[in-house]
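Field log, afternoon session.

UNIT: design team B
ACTIVITY: writing a sequence onto a fixed backbone
BACKBONE:
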């Protein structure tokens, strides 16, 4: 059963401009008659078959994603048909609460199964069907910068993963997980880093859901500090694990003009025993309980930190997520929960030595 790549780019970017005409392959096809100016007495070509391409007989989607129902999905024969012979009707036979269809776009609107029929307008007896399985997404499409990520295997039952092949900066915020107490984890594999990025970082974030001016957009980041440097001998052996507070949208603690009264950071409160480099996988976990954040690295508990009271206050909810800086990263085996009993059990497993971190950078 093939996983089909889900399109997350803008609609305008998906069309081809050929000879000044906007070309599509569905109901509003603007392709002209058969080129070449043949004998007017020759019979007009007529459609003889319409079939769904084998790789699209079953499509897996996450709620909120969409695909195009066009001639990439189905095949019409013979080739070179006039526009009228290529027009199709799309009908949702089952699952109108699972998918919707409009202007060649089939959108997953709810979890479940659906059956869709594609038939010829001129010969309705020529038709074929395909099925859709839609699941609730792992990552929120509105809060995440999903345009930077390949979400094809986000919900794959055997090996769920998300990659960012264009060495981008972005966040993946977990869907339907938020509150003042939660736990999130993921396996992370950095594959490459943009040539202009000397301080890449990847890890877990807490994104404020506060709505007032003091808490909106504030966040907290826990990361592997993959410092490369700007010299002639770049560093690709990374051991430092750190954190950074961000006040508002741009008040990163290490930015010029940001004091420790605004936001704080510690880029190396823990050193992993073995250096990590590109294509190495490691696991990070973070729990929130009010203003206190607990950290795990490769399933080893490594410490906790109390963020500033007014950054994301103890009673203001936040959402966990994953992030990267100008990198190609694969995130896999990810999960998040706001079940208080589960989070309490995770925190209780630490024992009495909570390793409270009080040291921050002076800048």
């Amino acid at each position: 059963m093939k996983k089909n790549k889900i399109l997350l780019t803008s609609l305008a970017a998906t069309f081809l401009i050929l000879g000044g005409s906007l070309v599509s392959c569905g109901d509003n096809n603007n392709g002209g008659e058969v080129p070449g100016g043949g004998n007017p007495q020759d019979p007009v070509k007529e459609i003889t078959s319409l079939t769904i391409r084998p790789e699209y007989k079953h499509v897996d989607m996450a709620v909120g994603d969409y695909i195009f129902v066009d001639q990439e999905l189905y095949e019409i024969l013979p080739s070179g048909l006039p526009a009228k012979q290529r027009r199709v009707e799309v009908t949702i036979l089952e699952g109108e609460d699972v998918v919707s269809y409009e202007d060649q776009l089939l959108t997953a609107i709810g979890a479940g199964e659906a059956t869709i029929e594609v038939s010829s307008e001129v010969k309705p007896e020529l038709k074929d069907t395909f099925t859709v399985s839609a699941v609730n997404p792992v990552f929120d499409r509105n809060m995440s910068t999903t345009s930077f990520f390949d979400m094809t295997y986000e919900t794959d039952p055997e090996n769920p993963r998300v990659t960012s092949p264009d060495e981008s900066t972005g966040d993946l915020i977990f869907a339907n997980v938020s509150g003042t107490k939660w736990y999130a984890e993921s396996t992370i594999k950095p594959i490459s880093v943009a040539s202009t990025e000397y301080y890449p970082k990847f890890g877990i974030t807490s994104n404020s859901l506060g709505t007032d001016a003091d808490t909106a957009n504030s966040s907290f980041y826990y990361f592997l500090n993959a410092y490369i440097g700007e010299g002639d001998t770049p560093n690709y052996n990374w051991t430092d694990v750190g954190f950074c507070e961000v006040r508002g949208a741009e008040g990163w603690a290490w930015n010029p003009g940001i004091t420790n009264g605004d936001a704080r950071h510690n880029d190396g409160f823990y050193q992993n025993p073995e250096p990590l480099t590109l294509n190495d996988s490691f696991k990070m976990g973070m729990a929130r309980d009010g203003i206190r954040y607990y950290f795990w690295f490769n399933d080893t508990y490594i410490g906790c930190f109390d963020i500033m009271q007014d950054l994301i206050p103890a009673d203001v909810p936040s959402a966990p997520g994953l992030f990267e800086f100008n990198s190609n990263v694969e995130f896999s085996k990810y999960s998040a929960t706001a079940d208080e009993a589960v989070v309490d059990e995770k925190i209780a497993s630490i024992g009495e030595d909570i390793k409270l971190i009080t040291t921050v950078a002076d800048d």
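LOG NOTE: The helical segments are 83-86, 340-348.
NEXT ACTIVITY: expression trials, pending approval
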